[in-house]
Amino acid sequence: MSATKNPLLNRLHSAPGLSPSQRQIADCLIANMNEAALWGVEELAAKSNTCVATVVRFAKKLDYTGYLEMRKSLVSAAKKQYGRDEQLLQAPVQASATLLEVSRRDVKNIEILLQAVNENLLQKVVKQLVRSRNRLAIGDGVSALMTRQLAYLLINIGLPVLEGNPADFATQVGLLEGKDLLIAISISPYSQETLDAAAYARKRGIPILVFTDSLTSPLAKLASLVLQIPGENLLFTHSLTTFGILTHTIATSIASQAPQRALRKMREVEQVAHRKFTKI
Does the pLDDT at position 220 exceed 70? Predict the structure, then answer.
């Protein structure tokens, strides 16, 4: 791939004033552009014989907000290089080794989550969900799966959530008012329909709770409250682990405020659904 067609490669070759350690990182990336798309910040530091702090400073030197944004450029470059029909990732041969690697990456995602989310933020999210009159959750692609999971958990504890239809986001948001809540979920590459619907809600003064992969994402900029859901994994997708942890935490926190009501609602749901399932 030519440098003129790869903005990241351009930056690596032309970045001025790099220190010797930063030059090592640049050379390491240039020599391993495709593999580097799968590396975490610690791996890049190890492979370039530098340290994590130097890698972070290097990313900022290239005008990225941090390592995660630079890694997205690496992933984008790798996708263009290989195309959809080729397998970029070479996972470990043994399934058990793959299990360990997948688990290791999700442990990292959880560590990032724990650093990004605090008590004050969680309490604000819980209060907003509870006090809202109506709740509309929107998301497209893998984010639609997330909206379904969130809706399932909240409905089971007695907090109704309407799942949005990507073909009709604008109309559904148009029915909301200031006492309602829009829950918008999107990860890179961001859904334009979700972004447009969130922008429309913001213009109308409707509170927006956002789940997204980066605090600098275009969706985060529209949020009243934003929860970061890191999801680095072995595939060019997004791990759902941190989202699952967050939604279970939120639902459990809400249920614990009125446990008897939550248990009663769960029993009611169970009785209604009981006839659908086979007895063993």
Answer: yes
